[in-house]
Prior knowledge:
Elements: E1 6-11, H1 18-31, E2 36-40, H2 46-56, H3 65-89, E3 93-97, H4 100-109, H5 115-125, E4 132-137, H6 140-149, H7 162-178, E5 183-187, H8 192-207
Helix pairs in contact: 1-8, 2-3, 3-4, 3-5, 4-5, 4-7, 6-7
Residues 14, 41-42, 56, 72, 97-98, 102-103, 106-107, 157 line the site of thymidine-5'-phosphate.
Amino acid sequence: xxxxxLFITFEGIDGSGKSTQAKLLADALSQLGHDVVLxxxxxxxxxAEQIRALLLEGDPxxxxxxxxxxxxxxxxxxxxxxxxxPALEKGQIVICDRFADSTRMYQGxxxxxxxxxxxxxxxxxxxxxxDLTLLIDMDPNTGHSRAKGxxxxxxxxxxxxxxxxxxxxxxxxxxxxxxxxxxxxxxxxQDIRSVQAIVYNLVMGVLx
Length: 208
Ligand code: TMP
């Protein structure tokens, strides 16, 4: 096993294909002999998966954006303490499906401007930012119908409708400019294999 401490995140709107790409990347890196941990947010640890159910199921109006920031951050802190930091300390490559950029967007932008609160809490309780973030850009209508088509219980954010996805897409594109050193924008409106090849080349560039 090759030891390469590296923290990679995938971001994008719902139905952008990032979970599929995260899995394909994890498989490809493992085949090359890298020691990889594939995880996700909200969740990724026992405690955080319990918080996930509170956040993703039920009435869209169940929590205010402020309460959501606290819950997502609590889940992230547990995930950091129990999964991400121990893996990075062992020299593993951590691939995480969503991270703090999702909170910057979904809670920081969706219902008023709460970006300052997200950034302050992230700085105080999380500290760590990814080394590389792969942002899969997707048409909001396509993304929304794909996500709704999955028919799971975890539809709280999808149930805010296409307008939320449009807002999130615009926000993510701006975020990629703001953090242009670590966020790489990828056009997700192409076939899985083409996106996979772009992802792979970007990661190889960082690994070298
Ligand atoms: P997923 O569908 O990628 O598993 O993500 C679940 C939902 O959680 C998705 O609609 C985005 C939302 N979310 C937030 O609102 N804030 C966050 O910080 C994270 C990690 C996810």
